[in-house]
Amino acid sequence: MRQLPSAPTRGVDLVRDVMYRRRTVGRLTSEIEGRKLVWQDKPAAVKQPLSPVPVDASRLDPWNPPRDLEHASRYVCTCDACGGEGKLTCGLCRGSARVRCDDCNGEGKRWGHAKNGARRLLNCQSCRGKGDLKCDYCSRGRVDCDTCKTSKKLERWLSVDTWSRTTTLSHPPVDFGNEPIERDATIIATARGHSVAATDLSEASGWIEDGWNRVQPELARGERVYAQRFELLDVPSADLTYSVFGRQQTVTFDGLRLCPPSVASDRVFARRSKFLKLGLVASALLLVIFALCWIQRGAYFTTDRPSGYLAISLLGLAVICGLAYRGLWNFTLGRRRRAKFWMAPALVPALFVGASICLSSPSIERARSYLALHDLPDTEIELSGLGADADDVRADLGLARVMDAKTCIDASKLTSAIAAASKQHARAIAYADDLALAGAKDALGLDHPQEASLTLNCATQTLRDGPRGHAMRAAIALTMARDCRARSDWDCTFMQVKAAEQLGSKDATALAQETYAQIETELDQTLTQLRAERDTSKRVDLERIGLVLATHLEQPSSPVASADVALLTSANKRDTAQLARDEEAARRRAEAEERRQAQLAAQAEARRQAQEQREAAAASAFEGALMCNDGTESPSCTCGGSHRGCCSHHGGVAGCR
To answer: Mean pLDDT lowest for which of 453-457, 476-480, 645-649?
Structure first.
């Protein structure tokens, strides 16, 4: 029983019946020898002639072969493996003499890094982009035949192959291993001989009729029995019936030693073992599912505080699973009292698990205490495990986060997380408006009106349309008007002054008067410069500046003499026309100069081309071929230079070609 899966150390109480009996077993041991004729071959000499098969192997008896069997059966034939060619097709490249490149899998490309470091497809370095390589194991797709060693012929002859074996068959079948049979059975009768016949077994007459044919060996072709030994045995046995998990099984113990059967013959313990393994798997899954369900309850249950309760719960569940497994172990063996003994203590850890689950739950009071201490992360974790009952605390948490914000934009984003109908939402909006107004004041104090305007836009429309919003917007407009006046941007200045007046600013009128005074001063300076200026282009610029200044002064609050405006207008028209005439004359002079430069360049190009033609003609005359009187060209002279010594072996100089 120790060898059976999940078996107890004591199993006497599982036994239901034991029956003793004796069996008569016949055992026949046969020694068998076999022979057959086989062809042997070796590479033949190249000069050996081919010859026919001298004998028919199927007509020869391997038990009575000729004395000179090897000599009588020897002959020379064509090699069957290569067909008499001495060469075989290479199995690696299949005769193509090329094999696929393993580095690129026959594609010719592989991923690599270029010189600039970029990763892209490059030609394979092994096959140089071809995808295949030369086969190193053959020559032009052919290899030498290993059978005939390139001789194209084989020398063959017959030889006798022998073997022997021993078989032991018994009926009914028994297996006592390699131990002597006398240790497990009583030998009643024995018979030995070259071949034991049924007539030699007078003591086994009652057994022969049923078992003799069952112990005869099966002979293959070419085999025969040359010795046999028969033993008639008296084998005691015990059939034991046991019950596990409501199922019974009977096993047999054979021999005087009562040898146990193989473990593989057991079925009920194997089935019980599978059932118990399923119980272990279910226990492990229960622990995993419990942990996952605990984590899925919310972020609160993954923090440090409930982690201790989680450990206690998992430990309690592990104890419950262990006790349940031990109770199941005894229950499947039919030991119900022991099963109850192990299952009853499981109530104690079950109470611990229930108490841990209850104590680990979050509470609103704890969340309020965290919020009172301004511990916002712990407050959020505590609230993550609560339901709709904690919405008021969640709104307080959102308001606390808004109060921690430093800018209106951050406060506005955090305000969206607070319920719109709550009082905390209104307080958060009011705080965000205060941040916007304070930020605008700070930016305005640093003389950044654009930034102040953007910061004020973060506030609600109610604040911007209220008294505080109007005052801040008017201050921003006045600051921007002063910046525009410093840049002499009069349109921008008067637009911002007008916006400040509409918002109720009292300083807007004074700023407008200051602006008009500055414009009159600049206009007087411009007229003074205009009277002294003689350059037409500069006069035009000054006249335009003066017209702009005069235009801004044509306001009901600051009239300007129409005679000055008319004078500036007529002077600007006259000077503008004169400037246009001067520019046209300058343009014509520039065009005339460009045409003159183009003519000079064309004349220089013509002279250069004529010089190149003369040089080419001189070079052609100097390098021309010199003809001899025999009609051939001079091998060493040309037309240019002295002809002394030329064509001395060709009849003299005839002239140039």
So the answer is: 645-649
